[in-house]
């Protein structure tokens, strides 16, 4: 990947790719010189945001910054140097086995890679030329973009198209003999322990029977030796395995995501399957090991493909937290009160959501809902079009709540975006839940909640441009522009000038703040220069990578990390109470970035009753699981 | 079917099931009727309901999850009204075990197949047998051959459908949700066959 962060940082990934290796450690690229100010940073209280102003950190070692700049300038040169090696590697592997994932298909990437030979002339796969059939082969989520990129190989950065994601299975005509299928960057498979295909992201499951059998053979071969295969690396491809009883899940990816992330995605994919069928589907395999599960999942392609798509845009998939729609405190309170009322009448969980964001939610006494279950549930509801047509009543299983039993979900859309989910253990509660919904709807209309929700959707949440570098000028509101105070000092203005009106102060482009206690996170709205879906996806991948490195078991947990590559400066800060991930302009000044992170934390604190669901705390699942 | 074993057994034995509270709901002039649609996936159950309830037809197929609930009231010529409370069930195999939840207590069952698909006709016969065994006694059953606009692709003859319906004491009709052909007729014919409360209130009071 031309613009991969590793390629420009001190650790060199190009030399090690292709070897069987342990997952890369990101520690090498952590700026060692940060240690000195790290302690300072960690000791700074969120409530004393100015303390950094007083204790200005030591000037950083100049070389570090200069190296970065140099590499930035020479970014494309680096890439070109890298390519021949990769091609050779691809060739040699290809020679050894035609069935292995050899083509180091120099993915044009879903990002604005610098122009490089890879995008125009690379002859990937088995010696075929770039025919129209494979033009979109490198695509991960969005055909339009890639086609455009491929057809204008000389102007890779030009494509910023925001073509919407199309739900459902695509390229169903492919199988493992198709070059286009083989070149896809990220495959997901579910198969049974007898090798029968259950789900494939691309291509027709039935046509992939042979391929599934191969995967099964690899898994059982290792298992027969009393071992377990977790990860195979072949060139740029990682093959990640997850065994769940009679169900095998496999991801084949050349997206350079960390093993931990891919494994966690497989776990979610399994959870989604359990949500639809419950774990008792295992019994079918006890009765008949060759049981064919595909009919049981009929019509659910769209649910899985939507989940896989969310791996590249929804931070909930790696943060294991949920996010709320920003709302004025009294508005959320009004919604919460009526949900609580309903929950007291025998409803297990009452959840009011807008798209993938929570408006309010309430659980019956002692009932606890895991954020991953919420993610899977909302993905199931949002991706299944039929819920929008009319009120529905359907069995669903919450894998973290009880993987063996169905609950019953009453689902009703109040408008295009806002929907209510009422969960119960009773299969004949429909009419009761329908009555509950009518009561809830009346209250929501009376207290204007639904209108406020639409307004919030339009306004968005926290905009980095609204962050003032000075303390005390916050109005304590998320609503846009209300806080664009004229109080910004000269220095703050100078800062903005430096970064030519792009992003927030000190080159802040975006941030994610996760409250550990609340199991909730908040992200800033995307703004310039992170405009295109492709850039957003690339940023999330970077966050995901850095999240994994912050939580790495061997050397972690880290408290702070400062990474600079040609795309971003990423600053992470993990405390007992929160985790902050912030992305800056790659030229951002470190001391200023740290200062801005303190401001972000203070800002979040200031508006927490608008961006978080406070008080209700139905997420005692950690306590329960003890 | 695979997930049937995991269903909590709580609903069995409770005849109530998913039935509206009927007390006082019915009088001789205003009937309230629970109706369930059954049939293979993709035969057009939801399309029939949406055509009937909203007058819409959406050619993009949307797989029903669990069951959808809709209601529609029609007025008959004898100035009675019938309010249909319709359970549009999912045709997917995994929901088959849940069907009793929806057809239990139903006064009307509409079994749908696709005239271009003999498999769906076989599945319809499975549902008829299941209803004969486990449905409410006296349930009114209609057999519906949908997608009648696709004459050139027809694989189940009108005669086959009509004969099977006749043998099983069902009302038979072919419909097209796409062209709206026979959709309203279907529900009107059902309404005519509904048993009317025979003025029990007079006797009681």
Automatic annotation (TrEMBL), chain A:
Plays an important role in membrane trafficking through the secretory apparatus. This is Vacuolar fusion protein MON1 homolog. Belongs to the MON1/SAND family. Residues 53-63, 136-146 have a biased composition (Acidic residues). Residues 1-177, 470-489 are annotated as: Disordered. Residues 18-32, 94-104 have a biased composition (Polar residues). InterPro entries: FUZ/MON1/HPS1_longin_1, FUZ/MON1/HPS1_longin_2, FUZ/MON1/HPS1_longin_3, Mon1. Residues 1-17, 470-486 have a biased composition (Low complexity).
UniProtKB/TrEMBL annotation, chain B:
InterPro entries: P-loop_NTPase, Small_GTP-bd, Small_GTPase. One of its GO terms (molecular function) is GTPase activity. PROSITE patterns: RAB (PS51419), RAS (PS51421), RHO (PS51420). SUPFAM superfamilies: P-loop containing nucleoside triphosphate hydrolases (SSF52540). It holds the Pfam family Ras. Transmembrane segments: none annotated. Signal peptide: none annotated. Gene3D superfamilies: P-loop containing nucleotide triphosphate hydrolases (3.40.50.300). Keywords: Nucleotide-binding. Residues 1-23 are annotated as: Disordered. PANTHER family: PTHR47978. This is OLC1v1026095C1. It comes from Oldenlandia corymbosa var. corymbosa.
């Amino acid at each position: 990947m031309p613009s991969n962060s590793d390629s420009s940082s001190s650790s060199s990934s190009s030399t090690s790719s292709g070897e069987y290796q342990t997952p890369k450690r990101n520690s090498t690229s952590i700026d060692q010189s940060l240690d000195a100010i790290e302690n300072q940073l960690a000791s700074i209280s969120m409530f004393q945001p100015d303390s950094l102003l007083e204790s200005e950190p030591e000037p950083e070692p100049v070389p570090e910054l200069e190296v970065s700049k140099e590499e930035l300038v020479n970014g494309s040169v680096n890439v070109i140097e890298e390519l021949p090696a990769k091609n050779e590697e691809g060739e040699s592997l290809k020679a050894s086995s035609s069935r292995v994932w050899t083509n180091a298909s120099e993915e044009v990437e879903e990002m604005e890679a610098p122009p490089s030979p890879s995008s125009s002339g690379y002859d990937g796969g088995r010696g075929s030329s770039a025919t129209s059939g494979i033009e979109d082969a490198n695509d991960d989520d969005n055909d339009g973009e890639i086609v455009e990129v491929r057809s204008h190989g000389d102007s890779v950065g030009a494509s910023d198209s925001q073509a919407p994601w199309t739900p459902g299975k695509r390229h169903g005509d492919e199988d493992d003999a198709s070059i286009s299928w083989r070149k896809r960057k990220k495959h997901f498979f579910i198969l049974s322990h007898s090798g029968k295909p259950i789900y494939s992201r691309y291509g027709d499951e039935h046509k992939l029977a042979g391929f599934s059998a191969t995967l099964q053979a690899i898994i059982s071969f290792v298992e027969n030796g009393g071992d377990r295969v977790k990860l195979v690396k072949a060139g740029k491809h990682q093959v990640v395995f997850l065994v769940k009883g009679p169900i095998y899940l496999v991801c084949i990816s050349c997206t350079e995501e960390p093993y931990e992330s891919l494994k966690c995605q497989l776990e979610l994919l399994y959870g989604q399957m359990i949500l639809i069928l419950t774990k008792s589907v295992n019994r079918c395999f006890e009765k008949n090991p060759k049981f064919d599960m595909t009919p049981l999942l009929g019509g659910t392609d769209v649910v899985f493909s939507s989940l896989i798509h969310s791996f590249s845009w929804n931070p909930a998939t790696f943060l294991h937290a949920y996010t709320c729609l920003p709302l004025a405190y009294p508005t959320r309170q009004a919604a919460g009160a009526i949900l609580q009322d309903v929950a007291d009448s025998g409803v297990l969980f009452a959840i009011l959501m807008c798209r993938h964001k929570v408006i309010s939610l309430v659980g019956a006494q002692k009932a606890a809902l895991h954020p991953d279950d919420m993610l899977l549930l909302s993905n199931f509801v949002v991706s299944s079009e039929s819920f929008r047509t009319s009120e529905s009543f359907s069995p669903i299983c919450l894998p973290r709540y009880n993987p063996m039993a169905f609950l019953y979900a009453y689902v009703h859309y109040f408008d295009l975006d806002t929907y209510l989910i009422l969960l119960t253990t009773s299969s004949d509660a429909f009419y009761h839940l329908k009555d509950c919904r009518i009561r809830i709807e009346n209250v929501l209309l009376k207290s204007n909640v639904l209108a406020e929700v639409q307004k919030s959707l339009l306004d968005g949440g926290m905009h980095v441009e609204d962050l003032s570098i000075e303390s005390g000028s916050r109005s304590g509101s998320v609503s846009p522009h209300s806080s664009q105070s004229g109080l910004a000092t000269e220095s703050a203005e100078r800062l903005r000038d430096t970064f030519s009106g792009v992003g927030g102060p000190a080159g802040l482009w975006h941030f994610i703040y996760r409250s550990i206690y609340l199991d909730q996170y908040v992200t800033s709205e995307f703004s310039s220069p992170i405009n295109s879906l492709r850039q957003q996806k690339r940023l999330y991948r970077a966050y995901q990578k850095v999240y994994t490195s912050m939580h790495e078991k061997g050397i972690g947990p880290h408290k702070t990390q400062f990474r600079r590559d040609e795309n971003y400066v990423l600053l992470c800060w993990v405390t007992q109470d929160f985790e902050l991930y912030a992305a800056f302009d790659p030229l951002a000044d470190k001391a200023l970035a740290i200062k801005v992170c303190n401001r972000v934390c203070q800002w979040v604190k200031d508006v927490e009753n608008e961006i978080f669901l406070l008080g209700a705390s139905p997420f005692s699942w950690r306590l329960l699981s003890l | 079917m695979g997930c049937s074993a995991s269903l909590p057994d709580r609903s069995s034995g409770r005849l109530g099931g998913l039935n509206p509270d009927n007390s006082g709901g019915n009088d001789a002039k205003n009937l309230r009727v629970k109706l369930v649609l059954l049939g293979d996936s993709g035969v057009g159950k939801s399309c029939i309901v949406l055509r009937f309830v909203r007058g819409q037809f959406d050619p993009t197929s949307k797989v029903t999850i669990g069951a959808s609930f809709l209601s529609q009231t029609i007025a008959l010529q004898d100035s009675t009204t019938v309010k249909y409370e319709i359970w549009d069930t999912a045709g997917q195999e995994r929901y088959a075990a849940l069907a009793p939840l929806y057809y239990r207590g139903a006064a009307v069952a509409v079994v749908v197949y696709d005239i271009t698909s003999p498999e769906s006709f076989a599945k319809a016969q499975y549902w008829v047998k299941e209803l004969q065994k486990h449905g409410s006694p006296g349930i009114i059953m209609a057999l519906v051959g949908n997608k009648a606009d696709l004459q050139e692709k027809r694989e189940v003859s009108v005669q086959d459908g009509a004969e099977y319906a006749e043998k099983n004491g069902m009302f038979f009709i072919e419909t097209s949700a796409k062209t709206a052909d026979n959709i309203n007729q279907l529900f009107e014919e059902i309404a005519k066959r509904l048993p009317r409360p025979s003025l029990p209130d007079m006797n009681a009071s």
